[in-house]
Amino acid sequence: MAGTAGGRTSPDLSELAADSASLARSGTAERVAAILRDRITEGYFPPGSRLSEESISGALAVSRNTLREAFRLLSHERLLEHRLNKGVFVRVLAVEDLVDIYRVRLLVECAALRTLGEPPYDLTAVEAAVSTGEQAALADDWPACSTANIRFHQALAGLANSPRTDELMRNVLAELRLAFHVMADPRRFHEPYLTRNREIADRLAEGDAAGAERMLAFYLEDSRRQLAEAYAERLTTR
User: What is the mean pLDDT of residues 43-50?
Assistant: First the structure.
């Protein structure tokens, strides 16, 4: 990690510099936004982090104008916010944001399973995400486990085979990752869901989409409640 800003540790941007290769010759704002969105989803930029124009534009080898446009796009997605005379920061979610995120997840993820049609289903991405999460847990890498959990839910929504749904869920789940940072003990939060992820994947592999949907609905409610309680506790201890 490199330095601190406002009491927060700034990330080492050497990893971000590696992403510049993926921009190739088309260093568009949309592609820059996609890279930063992925990094937020992975927990690389935690809530409250200040994003330095100079450092990030240098790491990605793009112009500041391109980066500012990417910031604007991500602000529209509610991932970033501009603070007057202070700069651009990763948003800190409010309880109301959390409630709305889970409302959308319940509508979209459950509908994706409800409309699957006849088995068998292509569960390649679902199985890969479950296995990645299990391996991360064995390595005691809970940030990676958190990322794998996000990928699992992206994969569930992806079963709808809808590019628009995929785009919606990428944005919603990137916001969700911001909420995960309130959990003081990430292992205690994420570990039980590894088993539940595996159970949902197994139900789908058996062709029981209705059963998987029921399990997912209970799962999402439990997750929402846990995060809401963590938010409430954080507010009372401020």
Answer: 89
